Amino acid sequence: MRNLTLKQLRYVEGADRLGSITNAAEEMNISQSSITAAINMLEDSLGHDVFIRTPAKGIRTTATGREAMTLIRRFIYQSRQFEEELSSLGGEAMGTVRLGCYATAAPSFLPAVLQAISEKFPGASIQLFEGNLSRVMEFLEDGDIDLAFTYEDGTSNYCQFTPLFKAPPYAIVSLNDPLAQKESTSLEELIDLPMVLLDLPHTQEYFLRLFQSRKLTPTIAHSSRSSEIVRALVSQGYGFSILNIRPVEYREGYSNYRILPICNQPETPTFGIATLASVNQPRMVRSFIESCLDLRDQGRLKALTVVPK
User: pTM, whole model, 2 decimals?
Assistant: First the structure.
């Protein structure tokens, strides 16, 4: 079997990940012929096709090609670990951390975390991936990211979960709604209002389950996959909604909606860090996780939650 270089394997992996030789060439700033040559060399060495090429539709892996890509990604990941561990010898942790984050939590959660990390590890590089709970888990299990910031309920059996904070659900109502004058509310009070539902996989089921546990059925007037749109609809008086992580832009008395704790203690999810249990993480990733735990222990993540009084 002919020896492929690490660079050529990265070319092949990029073509598979992006589903296109053209897109891979653009991302890596090299010629398409270099990508094609690496693919051809791999296929010649294996004696079978790794990709199915369809004009105008890009490329996709064959059944055996998928097995080959799993091995290639594992090797690339291990080589990156080696490079970063070697560069960190005798000094501070360095390297790249590829992290995924549940999209609705990202705007509030990530800025504080990334600022603290960049101050502590100026040589670190961060690559961000966002998605719903299912997509974030796909990123992790496919080896696209080193760790995921997500809810414990959204993780799989292959993961190790490290909790950061409890995120009790809270209600948001328009400032024009009489409930906005209260200090807290209950699911029983909210049930008479139309609901604006955050409609994401797992998330929708969780919010509806809160009501079902108390034998209540909300009237869903509107739904959106964007928490920003949900808050905008609530602000305009289209109904109430329920979320878990306090938005970074919320200011009591200045926002067009009011956040209210839910006093009857509904089901509370845990937000934290998911990693693959079978993977030995590079030093930079381990240091990143330790820094997140320091933020937790210092109480610097409490501002993200709305706790019933």
Answer: 0.72
